[in-house]
Known about the structure:
Blueprint: H1 7-21, H2 23-31, E1 35-38, E2 44-48, E3 54-59, H3 69-98, H4 101-104, H5 109-112, H6 116-122
Amino acid sequence: MERPELAPLLRLWSGLGNAVGGLPTTRQRLLRLTGEAWSDDHTVRAVVGPRGQLVELQIDPRVYRRPDATELAATVVEVSRRAVVEVNRAARQLIEAAVPAELRGAFGDDLRYAHDVDVLAREGDDGGDLR
Length: 131
């Protein structure tokens, strides 16, 4: 009977130990992440927290010179989406640096690191009604 190769298992065990030991620090760093984005014309700015929830929204008064509620709403959604992409990029980088690849798993990455509108679009849903 052939003896199993232990080196990969030992590397995995070591990676697990390092990842678990660094979890409090990684968690704190994740909780401090934000994503920020501006509209192309710099009239709308969105900031999202580490879970992609809107925490700050700035709308320049210039938008009221040409009032268009539909356009403003679409801009807010788009700028928020960009901010979510930004915070998710930072979160993914942080996790990839802290957790060995073998322990991260691929299941659900598209759900963890993408805006809901993008996930729905990939699934063939236009995202028109997220409620």
